Amino acid sequence: MTRFAQTLGLPLVLFLLLAAAPLWADTFTLSLLARAMIFALAAISLDLILGGAGLVSFGHAALMGIGAYGVGILMAEGVSEALIAFPVAMAAAGLFALATGALSLKTRGVYFIMITLAFGQMAFFVAQSLSAYGGDDGLSLAARSLVAGERWLRGPLAFHYTVLGLLAAGALLCGALLAAPFGRVLRAAKDNERRVRALGLDPYPYRLVAYGIAGALAGLSGALFANLTEFVSPAFLSWHRSGELIVMVVAGGMAAAALKAGGLGRPGSALLGALLVVLLEEALSDLTEHWRIVFGPLLVLLVLAGGKRARGGRT
Amino acid sequence: MTAPLLQVRGLCKAYGALIVTDAVDLDVAHGEIHALIGPNGAGKTTFIALVAGEVAPDRGRILLGGADVTRHAVHRRAQAGLARSFQVTSVLPAFSAVENVALAVQAAARRSFRLLPAPGSDRVRRAHAVELLAQVGLAAKADVPAGVLSHGEKRALELAMALAGKPRLLLLDEPMAGAGPEEGRAMVELISAARAQCGILLVEHDMEAVFKLADRVSVLVAGRLLASGPPDAVRADPAVQAAYLGEAAT
Prior knowledge:
The structure holds two protein chains of two kinds.
Chain A: H1 2-20, H2 27-52, H3 60-76, H4 82-104, H5 109-128, E1 139-140, H6 156-179, H7 181-191, H8 193-198, H9 203-229, E2 231-232, H10 239-258, H11 267-287, H12 292-310
Antiparallel strand pairs in A: 1-2
Helix pairs in contact in A: 1-11, 2-6, 2-9, 2-10, 2-11, 3-4, 3-5, 3-9, 4-9, 6-7, 7-9, 10-11, 10-12
Chain B: E1 6-15, E2 18-28, E3 33-37, H1 44-52, E4 59-64, E5 67-68, H2 74-79, E6 82-85, H3 97-108, H4 119-135, H5 151-164, E7 169-173, H6 181-194, E8 199-203, H7 207-213, E9 216-221, E10 224-229, H8 231-236, H9 238-249
Parallel strand pairs in B: 3-8, 3-9, 6-7, 7-8
Antiparallel strand pairs in B: 1-2, 1-4, 4-5, 9-10
Helix pairs in contact in B: 3-4, 3-5, 4-5, 5-6
C-alpha cells in the first residue's frame, strides 16, 4: 500500500483532478492549467536526468525553446500541420540534446551545470539572431497548429485534453524508463558510479540516451507552449527559465517526499512541482507584485521539510 | 597447459618520484587463492586498482585469460570476468540489498539497455538475486536499504554482487577489515567456498585468515615483490620476517 502510494498514488490523484478540471474551470483557468501542464511535461523530462540520473542540467529551457521555434519557423514557412511540426520539434530538440550531451556528459558536477548552461546560452543567442524569424522580438504564430488539417487545437477543451494526454504519455514513458533495467543503471550510477563501473557497466551511453529522450520530451513541451501562447521568443530559451524548471523539479520532489508520496526521480513529483510553482506564482502575483518575497521562503520550507526524506531510497 | 587466469608482467606505476609498483610479476590460477600481503603503504591497494583498471600503469602488461587487458577500461575488464570488492565497502546505499544484487545480475546478463520494464524477466532476476543473498547469509535483509546495513553485512553484500557475475577472477581488498570475530569467520568460509568458482587475489592484513585461505602468498614491500610462494615457505623466509611478518605474526 505504501509502495502504491509512493509510485502511483500522487500522479493518479493529480491526473484525475486535471481531467476533471473542465467541469468547473473557466477559460482563463483552463489556459493557466494548460500552461502548468506544459511546464510539467518539461519538468518531468528534466527530472529524468536530474532526479533519475543525478545530472543537474542548466540548459533545459533551450530544449523547450528549440521545440517552440520548430513549430514557429515551420508555420512561418507554411507548414501548420502538428503531425509534421511536433515530431520535427521533438527531433530537433532531441538531436540538440544528443549532440550537446555527448560532450557535456564527459563532465560531472559543477562542470556539467556550467557546460549545459553554456550550450543553453548559445541556443539563446542563435534564437536572438534569427532576424528572419523576429530576432529579438520573437515570432507570432498565425494560428495554432492544425491536426490532420483540422483546427482542433483552437477549442480550449480540445487543447486541454490534448496537453493532458501528451503529459500523461510523457509521465508514463519516464516512469517506465526509470523502473526498467535501464533506469536502474541510471539511478545506481547516481548513487555510486565507481561500483557501477566495477560491475561492468559504463554509465555514459545510458545517460546520453536518457538525455536525448529528455530533450525530445522538452521539445514536445515547447511545441505545445508555442501553441498555447501563439508566440515564440528568445526568452523561452533563457537560463532563467532553466532555473525555474529546476525549481519545479526540486520543489516537487521535496513536497512529495514530505508527503511520503514520492521524491526526486518520480514523474508524479515533478508534475506536482510544476503545478505548485505555476499556480502559486499566479495566486501570489494576484496578491502582490512582490510575490517572490512569499514564494522564496515557501520554497525554503519545502526543501527543509522534504530534504531529509528525499535522500532516502526506493526499493 | 593452460595459461594462468591472471598474468601480471613487469607492472610499474609511479606517482612523481614515489614508486608504488615496481616491476611486479604475479599470477593467479583458476581455483587458487593468491594472497598479497605487505605493510601499510606497500602499494597493495594501488596494485588492485591497476589490475581492476582504475589506475593506468606506466609500464608492464596485464593479461586476463590470456588476453591483454592493460589498456581496457574498468567496465570492459568487468565484462571480461573480473569482479571486486573495495577496501572501503562500496555498495549502492539508496538501493535495497536485493536491488544491489539485482543490478549486478542484470549487468552480468547484459540485459541493462532495456528501456522498458519486463516484469517477467525482472522477477526471474530478483529471484536469482535473493538466492545469491541467501548464499552470503543476507536473505533476511533483502529489503533493507544497503546504506543502513552493518559493516560486515555490507562486506557480504559486496561479495554477493561480485559473485552474481560468475566472475573468473575476484579481487578482494581487505574483506576482513573491520569485521568482528563472528563475521570474520563467516567471511573466511564464504571466500573459501568462492574458490571453487574462480581465481581470487586477496589483499588482507588478518594473517590468520591469510594462512588459512591462501594457496600462495606474495609479499609486497615498497612496491616491490619481496617473496612469493606457498604460505609456509613465505612465513619461514628470513627476509620476509625482517621486513614485515616479524612483528605481525607474534
